[in-house]
Design goal:
Double Stranded RNA Binding Domain; alpha/beta; 8-stranded parallel barrel; 39% helix; 3 domains; 532 residues; 3-stranded antiparallel beta sheet; single chain; TIM Barrel
Length: 532
């Protein structure tokens, strides 16, 4: 639970329940699909994080959803209530015969969420029943779940649009659910078209009318206001917040709990989870991106890789004197880290800041020398913002402390296309390690993959740690497009081992050579790191 304090008196004035719907609403995002194992892993993670509710899915939709509820029941979750989701009864069915309602009960969860119509247009044009019939449907459905002893959360679908169109009827829907025993009345901005001032005003009306019942908020991001709308509802009295990790959801997504939670904690003065739990926020975000097979959003507030990345020399100079000058919170509060970007826009402060992070003694002459070399290379097409490992190696080279782990004698790649249509790619690498020569052949799906295989094969007997390296991203960008097929290309490779992630860069008119440079830097960085 979130304990909310009056900042004037210091007393507790209410609690907010954090309700995660990543496993249902989040899975409706384009390109996202969770296996049963994925859903169970996410549930464990969110429980460890400390959320109050984890909505497991719409069990009536397919067998996998029901299997989730059956298996998660054996987990013994410590913090979170698992919630089964469903809709109010069909207009032509009795509650005792309704598939959705009875499936919620079959999930055997402590809580169930019912979505009901609160916009009169949806009642008449989608449900195809009278407005009074819909009131009966909502009331009977809530009463049926409550009579079976489970906490019942009523999601008033399209509430804000419904209220704008017919405020009297939208309130009647909430009244019907409340009188039937609903524990929480959730106001949904289902189309995501509302703005914060509307959400605040309408939520305040509802809170003043139904103050004895917990009011919840569920927002979508179609105007890019989901988080702002969520916070506006809290200011108006909502004490139950629904959202998803990373804002995953249908169309433009849902309210992003990775932004909502720290905003509640650090901007509105609420005691959200514990400070130790909030420090796991960046890790939680990246875990969900990874299991969703999505690329993390670099500029996402609080948890994005760029959230505390600084490039302008004046900014970095100020930050070195006082971190509050260009950071609204300390990155470690949410488990993130500060980054100083090195580019042609950088000043000496950026380089000095990086040297400080690397525990290298400050040396302004050295910083100027490094910066001069960076500018020379970036003028050739290199870029070090996403290539921290290549920059680290560059510093060692400029300082004269770099000792290569191997020397290239030659490499060669061949691509053969046969009459059958099959492509065969081989790479030959000849290296010198100490006083020994290694000459090996590697095969791959393309020349870069084959080079990578040959490089690893030639070094693994000398450096077993190379087996821990995994290439996780490979990007190619044309630097001077006007040169056509003779253009220089920049290759960025992202690699990881058991403990860290790093980026390297290569640049050449030859894409194979640019890739080789980035591959070599990736391996060298790993080997240098292991030696340290």
């Amino acid at each position: 639970m979130v304990r909310i304090y009056d900042q004037n008196t210091g007393s507790t004035v209410g609690k907010i329940a954090l309700y995660d719907t990543t496993l249902r609403d989040g899975m409706q995002a384009e390109g996202v699909s969770f296996s049963l194992e994925d859903k169970l892993a996410i549930a464990r993670y969110l429980d460890d994080f400390g959320l109050d509710y984890i909505e497991g899915g719409y069990a009536a939709s397919n067998p996998k959803e029901m299997q989730f509820f059956q298996q998660v029941a054996n987990f013994g979750l410590k913090s979170s209530k698992v919630v089964a989701f469903g809709s109010t009864r069909r207009a032509d069915a009795k509650v005792t015969d309704d598939i959705s309602l009875n499936t919620i009960l079959a999930c055997k969860t402590a809580a169930g969420t019912l979505v009901g119509k609160s916009w009169d247009m949806h009642v008449t044009e989608v449900l195809g029943c009278s407005l009074d019939d819909n009131l009966a449907i909502c009331a009977e459905s809530v009463r049926y779940l409550k009579s079976r002893g489970i906490e019942t959360i009523f999601d008033a679908e399209h509430f804000y649009d419904g209220y704008k169109n017919n405020p009297e009827y939208a309130i009647k829907v909430l009244q019907a659910a409340a009188e039937a025993g609903a524990d929480v009345l959730v106001l949904c901005d289902t189309n995501g078209g509302s703005l914060p001032e509307d959400v605040y005003a309408i939520t305040k009306v509802v809170y003043d009318r139904f103050g004895s019942i917990v009011i919840g908020i569920h927002t979508h991001n179609d105007t890019d206001c989901a988080t702002a709308n969520c916070l506006a509802a809290v200011r108006a009295g909502a004490r139950h917040v629904q959202g998803t990790i990373n804002g995953l959801g249908e169309r433009c997504g849902n309210a992003n709990l990775c932004t909502v939670i720290p905003n509640l904690a650090f901007k509105m003065g609420f005691d959200v989870l514990s400070s130790e739990k909030i420090k796991a926020l960046t890790e939680v975000s990246r875990f969900i991106f990874e299991i969703s097979n999505l690329t993390p959003v670099a500029n996402m507030p609080y948890v994005g890789e760029s959230a505390f990345a600084h490039k302008g020399g004046l900014h970095v100079d100020a930050l070195r004197k006082n971190k509050r000058t260009y950071e609204h919170i300390a990155p470690e509060l949410v488990g993130n880290e500060r980054r100083f970007l090195i580019s042609e826009l950088s000043g000496k402060s950026n380089v000095l800041a990086e040297l400080e992070k690397a525990n290298v003694a400050q040396d302004k002459k050295l910083a100027e020398k490094i910066l001069r070399r960076v500018r020379e290379l970036e003028n050739e097409g290199y870029q070090f913002e996403a290539a921290n490992a290549s920059f680290d190696l560059l510093v060692k080279k400029v300082m004269g402390t770099y000792k290569p782990s191997f020397e290239l004698i030659k490499y060669n790649t061949t691509v053969e296309k046969r009459a059958t249509g099959d492509l065969v790619t081989e790479a030959t690498v000849k290296l010198k390690v100490g006083d020994k020569i290694e000459h090996v052949v590697g095969e791959g799906d393309g020349p870069v993959n084959a080079l990578d295989a040959a490089l690893r094969k030639s070094l693994e007997n000398f450096y077993p740690g190379i087996k821990d390296i995994h290439l996780i991203d490979y990007k190619v960008r044309v630097v001077n497009a006007g040169a056509g097929t003779a253009a220089r290309v920049r290759v960025i490779i992202e690699s990881r081992d058991k403990n860290s992630i790093w980026g390297t860069v290569g640049c050449s008119e030859n894409i194979i050579e640019a890739s080789w440079q980035a591959l070599v830097d990736s391996v060298e960085y790993k080997l240098q790191k292991d030696k340290q």
